[in-house]
Amino acid sequence: MAEPEPGKTADDPARDTARLHTLVGSAQALFEDGQSLLEAELAFQKARATFVFSRAKGILGLAALALALLFFVLMALVVGLLLALAPLIGPWWALLVVVAGLLVTTALCILGVIQRVKAVTKAFKSTASKGDAV
After folding, report:
1. Alpha-carbon Rg of the chain, whole angstroms?
2. Same domain for 56 and 100?
3. Other CB atoms within 10 Å distance of the CB of residue 98
4. What's the whole-model pTM score?
5. How many CB atoms lie within 10 A of CB 82?
6. Which range of residues forms the domain containing residue 48?
7. Residues 65 and 23 in one domain
């Protein structure tokens, strides 16, 4: 067994206290650094969310305006088709052709929506069943 240095015992309380003080200080500094990092991250995310929400208002406004203008474009197209077809096939037949075209287009859009909803539902069901198996 090694002998302790002269003037110091094997269990030097001053050295143990210094080590403990250094360890506690390091842990305290680490905790304070973690708090600072968390506060900075929260401030960054708050600023980021504020920026996104302020831009989202403008984006939604422009999208609503674009959709409204598109509606008017489609109305002009319908009226134009009626006016163009009326002299060729008569007003009632022109109305029938335009309405039939709109109904066919609407049906195709609805079928596309149904197919996409089924695909998404199927994807969620297969993901859920894989998640249950894990």
Report:
1. 37
2. no
3. 19
4. 0.52
5. 15
6. 15-72
7. yes
